[in-house]
Amino acid sequence: MSVRVSPRLDAIPTYVPGLTTAEVLARYGLDSAIKLASNESPYAPLDAVQRVVRDGVEGLNRYPDAYSRALRAELADRHHVEPDDVVLGNGSCELILLAGQAMLDPGTTVIYADPSFAIYPHLATASGAQAIAVPLDHDGGHDLMTMAAHVDERTRLVIVCNPNNPTGVYREASELERFVEMIPQDVAILIDEAYNDFVDLTESGRMMSLARRRPNLLVTRTFSKAFGLPGLRVGYGVGGRAWIDALEKVRQPFNTNTLAQAAALAALGERSAMADRVTSIVAERVRVEAELAARAVPFTPSRANFILVGDPTWEPGLHEALLRQGIIVRDGGPLGVVGRVRVTIGTPQENDAFLAALDQVTPIQTTAERSEG
Ligand SMILES: Cc1ncc(COP(=O)(O)O)c(C=O)c1O
């Protein structure tokens, strides 16, 4: 006899992470593989970051600072807000899930784009709320007008992922500012900016500024992508007091661990080295896109640290073909973008290896070509 689990869980798909390097090596009998599957940074943490992590080990017999005072103060300073306008999470993923806990109940709705970050559907199923998944526009970006049109008196939460995962498409700050204006001020909006660090500096930060004026807005960021610390799990949100108070109520007191707090703080202190890394990734993204265009390989122009490569009409198989050559990318099928793979931008050498492997893949036929042939 099995335990009585909430029937709501039946609707929650178990998250299936991409294959690890070790799994790919074993499965295909390879000596080496390159992982471009999880939108990680190809760079190891900077020396200054590694040092504080090593030094912090000695104090691990104590609980972390439950309020993450030093990190919170630094983030507040950086975003020109008060420390009480900042909330820390065990990755930004935790904050997104907590937003569901804090805002949703049966009979309410949450609106987000589809396909977008895989965690959003969990919020509704976990809380018994109704999910309204609004298909992306043809360019792979959010259809903001349709999303706004779905807001009614039952709506508790609207989520925007910008740039969007898995498409990489970015909606300009001016469009989002208009969108936020259209949403009633008592409806919570969460703007997930996990990939915002890869967006041009002139645009970056506009939503954070808006969060200072619109208390129904929470903007989440992460140390997992540009800052290269996904293994430590630390993300944060900046938003109105009602948002922050709600998340503070539902989070566990010690959600952000000691080493994560110290490393994130140290990473923030390494501004120019971090900026150089982001510049290199963006330059590589531009180069890889140019290489794809030169090969007439279809892709979705990206503003993030990954590119969606392929076409909806392509037969599945590109993912597997690349894996066989030791290039680990993310299969688009489970992400809702069939016929495509999501390729993280790595070092120049890693990106060259991806392009070389792509050249080896037998020309991928479209469904139309197959039926013609
Ligand atoms: C759009 C988006 N938001 C949030 C996250 C969560 O990142 P983390 O929990 O590592 O901060 C990810 C991770 O892939 C993501 O793609």
Question: What is the topological layout?
Answer:
Blueprint: H1 21-28, E1 34-35, H2 47-56, H3 69-78, E2 86-89, H4 92-103, E3 109-114, H5 120-127, E4 130-135, H6 144-149, E5 155-161, H7 173-182, E6 188-192, H8 206-213, E7 217-222, E8 235-239, H9 241-250, H10 258-269, H11 271-294, E9 299-300, E10 306-310, H12 318-324, E11 327-328, E12 330-331, E13 340-344, H13 348-360, H14 367-372
Parallel strand pairs: 1-11, 3-4, 3-5, 5-6, 6-7
Antiparallel strand pairs: 2-8, 7-8, 9-10, 10-13, 12-13
Helix pairs in contact: 2-10, 3-10, 4-5, 4-9, 11-13
The chain binds pyridoxal-5'-phosphate (PLP).
Order of helices and strands: HEHHEHEHEHEHEHEEHHHEEHEEEHH
Shape label: globular
CA(first)-CA(last) distance: 55 Å
Main sheet strand line-up: 2-8-7-6-5-3-4
Percent in strands: 15-25%
Stretches where pLDDT is under 50 for at least 5 consecutive residues are none
Mean pLDDT: 94
Instruction: Note the total helix count.
Output: 14
Broad structural category: alpha/beta
Kindly provide the radius of gyration, computed on alpha-carbon positions and rounded to a whole number of angstroms: 21 Å
| Helix content class | 25-40%
